[in-house]
Amino acid sequence: MPRSLKLYLVGVVAGSAVALLVTTLQFEIDQAISIGTLDPPGLGVALGLAFWTVVTLVASALPVKMPRGTLVSVSIAPLLAASDLGGPAAAVWVAAIGVTELRELRGRIPWYGSLANHAGVVLPVAIASIVAHQVTRLGDGLAFSFLGMVIGAAIFFAANVVLSATLVALRTEQNLRIVLVGDLRGFGTAFLAMAPLGWLMARVFELDQGGWWATLLFGLPLYTTRVGYEKFVEMRDMFTQTIGALAEAVDKRDPYTAKHSQRVKNIAVDIGRVMRVNDAELEALEWGGLLHDVGKIGVPDNVLLKQERLNRDERMIMNAHPVLGAQIIAPVTRLAPELPIIRHHHEWYNGSGYPDRLIGDEIPKLARILHVADAFEAMTAARPYRMTPLTHEQALGELRKFAGIQFDPVIVDAFVKTHYVEGVADPGRTIQPRPIPLIGQAASRMTSTDPGVAGRPASIPTPTTTERA
User: Fold this and answer.
1) How far is CA 363 from CA 342, 358, 360, in A?
2) Mean pLDDT computed over 280-308
3) Domain, as residue range, for 312
4) 239: three-class secondary structure by DSSP
5) Chain-centroid distance, C-alpha 317
6) Together in a domain, 148 and 195
7) In the structure, what pLDDT confidence band is assigned to residue 440 with cuts at 50, 70 and 90?
8) Lower CB count within 10 Å: N or C terminus of the chain?
9) Could you give the CA distance from residue 396 to residue 90 in angstroms, rounded to a whole number?
10) Would 11 be classed as within a structural domain?
11) Residue range 179-235, pLDDT digits in tens
């Protein structure tokens, strides 16, 4: 276990233990949480605590794992209701016991993992319930009660999400921002909707006759919310699997490119993480990496599998695959962010690439990232036209050699910091861009005869070891 993760676990568990102790000693449990008017009064309070604990246990039993690794349940609604009825002391004890999962009972989570999971709920609940309690005391009536619930829910939501995302980021070595934003998009709105639902559960519970059992009717909206989380994850997984299957079908046309798209995706995502791209861009790199060669489905076998050097006509057919790939994917509106990656992943930094001969920053950033990933993977794998692949050291040398010419130097520099070149190069070394001769640029611009791409080189670039990736 990494030292940073150990320190995090100790800190969160210690903080939640202190919060549990302080709230228990400083706040009395409100009688509003009591079931009936039993004698002695403490029995009704105990039954109320037990009721909300059981409801929370049921709501926490089967959390849904989001794409980035955080677990989401609908237990926030009964936790908020228990806080509203019984105050901070009731809330922390319901949280401490009620968030137990079936995985814990089956021994699938180590003891320190269980402690961290419980602490990640108890600490936010303690803070949120204390603030909500103070807001509620500002005035009488339902308005202040609802306001306290909403503010408390927002605090709980923010603290719980940050603690959970930090744990996942440390455990899986992902970027915290990526985990936080990535999973938040999937459940954020629905999670905040739990505040008014929890408030309604508390109000129904307070009804004089049968309020506690009427509260159980809220199990239906809680269940449908959980199903919504699950369907979101299932649909995303199915979409990703479909894209992966399509990419693999394209790769299987050539026995030498099996799993090529998957490896390119992995490299591109690692570069993206080093460059700290946002979550939407990271997802675009994932799907764009898988689909970048989908246009090769329209390249004839005699061209795609040719072992000798391609002639001019064959080169033009091969160079059309980015445009064809973009045309194939264009009708899928969900993949709109991936279109620039697919179309422009063979553009050269100095403007002599294809299909649109873009120069420098005119090339979409994610396409520049994928170009480096695609080139490295192609150079380090066997191909019909080059049966002996380059070593990682040789491939890295090629990337450095053509930085500023074929590749964006900043992207190459980021690639050097990924684990793919560990032991090959100094991760801290900065790649210096090779200067592009200004005379050469001027000459290439003057020779353009294509009216559709004025100011771009008209000649087809000389193929390198990366050109048929």
Assistant:
1) 12, 6, 6
2) 88
3) 252-453
4) helix
5) 37
6) yes
7) very low
8) N
9) 60
10) yes
11) 666 656 655 666 677 888 899 999 999 887 778 888 988 988 888 888 877 887 788
- pLDDT at residue 51 greater than cutoff 90: yes
DSSP state of 386: B
In a domain, 360, yes or no: yes
Same domain, residue pair 208 and 306: no
Give the model confidence (pLDDT) of 325-364 as tens digits: 999 999 988 889 999 999 999 999 999 999 999 999 999 9
Rounded average pLDDT over 265-286: 89
Cα–Cα nearest to 377, from 268, 244, 246 = 268
Asked if 271 and 345 touch (Cβ cutoff 8 Å), the reply is no
Q: Coil, helix or strand for 34?
A: coil
Same domain? For 128 and 181 the reply is yes
CA distance 17 to 196: 29
Distance CA 391, CA 425 (A): 13
pTM beyond cutoff 0.85: no
Query: What is the length of the chain?
Result: 469
In this structure, what CATH number is given to the domain that contains residue 337? Answer: 1.10.3210.10
Q: What is the mean pLDDT of residues 152-167?
A: 87
Q: How far apart are the first and last CA of the chain?
A: 39
Domain shared by 153 and 185, yes or no: yes
Looking up residue 53, the CATH number of its domain turns out to be 1.10.1760.20
386: phi then psi, degrees, rounded to nearest 5: -155, 90
Look at residues 232, 235, 343, 257 and name the one whose alpha carbon lies nearest to residue 292: 343
What tokens appear for 2 in the block? 């990494």
Domain termination site, one of 167, 195, 230: 230
- What confidence score (pLDDT) does residue 255 get? 67
